[in-house]
Design brief:
Elements (H helix, E strand, L loop, with lengths): L4 H16 L6 H15 L3 H9 L14 H7 L7 H11 L13 H8 L2 H8 L9 H14 L2 H9 L16 H8 L2 H9 L14 H7 L1 H4 L3 H6 L7 H16 L2 H14 L18 E4 L5 H13 L4 E5 L9 E5 L4 H8 L10 H14 L2 E6 L3 E6 L6 H11 L7 H14 L1 E5 L2
Antiparallel strand pairs: 1-3, 2-3, 4-5, 5-6
Length: about 425
Amino acid sequence: MEFTETHAEIVEGYAKLLLRESLVRTTEEARTQAFLMWALDFGSVEQLEQALAAGGNPNLVMVRGDTPLGKVVRCPDNPKGSRVRSVRLLLRAGADPNLPSEGKLPLAIACERGHTDVIELLRGGTDAAKVSDMDLAAALMAAAGEGSVELVKRLLGQGIRPDAPARPGSSVTALMLAAARGHVEVVQALLEAGADVNATDLEGQTPLDYAFHDLSKGKKTFPVLQAAGGVFGASEREGEALDREFRVAARKPGFKAAIEELTRITGAKPVPLRKAAGGIIPGSLGFSMAEGPTQALVLKHQAEFLSRGAYLFATDEVTSSKGPALGLLPTKDFYHAIAAVGTAGPNSEVYNADVIEWLRELEREQPFVITGLGHHFVEGKFTTLVKDAAGLVKRINRLCPDGDDQPETEKRQIEELRSTGCFFLWWE
């Protein structure tokens, strides 16, 4: 990347910040370190190397408490391979892997983010006594999802339990993830280490269920799990029960009246809604809207429709047209709505059961209503003043990591949460 006049202004701004916060002593030191900060935020691996060669301190704890190593480990690998190269550069320059970045060891950040490319680089220099079992469990989960069988075996060899949860409250196991992604060797390694072939998540799904959801990948692991005694869990029965409940509720006069009213409001022809896993949600209807304030309509009419046994929400991806729409489900329970749609972020290892459990925990602290729902997003509005906007934004960003953890982004999120009382969970 060419270093432009705009970049020079950014570096100058960083230098002033470092001097103002007394993180450096001299103007020259400030400029050197500011160039390193710029290289970490905007530059290439080559420019990072130049900044370190010029004397940039790889162990400077910056304004937010982050370190150069922690910042690199946290960021997306773009372009591919740049994260590993950057970590190697910093370690060679003397970066301390035991120095916390925003309160966490770089290894813990890598485990939490599922960045298996740098976990091995950091493990060698990190004090094992400082690494929690949950951090290592997160590393096992990430390695299982990536198909990194050698890392999986090394972690299991260190005594990590094959079914250990990667985060508090999670019921998804490494075997489930490996089964879903079609990683046969990882599945075999986990089973040999004693992984429970019939462990269940919060929805009652077993590893066999996970393999079955996408047989283009799971067909490789499906027979291995069956040979080990794997069976389908309660998820199929629960899903069937919810489908039956929706079919019965959809025949009630109140729901039929809700359909007529929403048809009148939107002027649209209703079409069935699709599940994330495929298939139609029984009794469901979507009303496509080329343009229009879908959220405003939800906030205006949701309570009225609930009184008729219908859950009204905004969406944009569960109808066949894949455009802005209003969804209508024959239930008053938004958790049933989320389960029926199948909202999840599998690329971030967040599954439908995790979404529901996270929201239940949040609702106990801060009541809300769900106003928008899709295969990969949930939108809601709090019914009382937000108590801890900063803390809630951090929780949301941990559940929905997108790699953009700049202070300006987080500050904007906090301000929006306080001013609107709305939250948005989204996964790629």
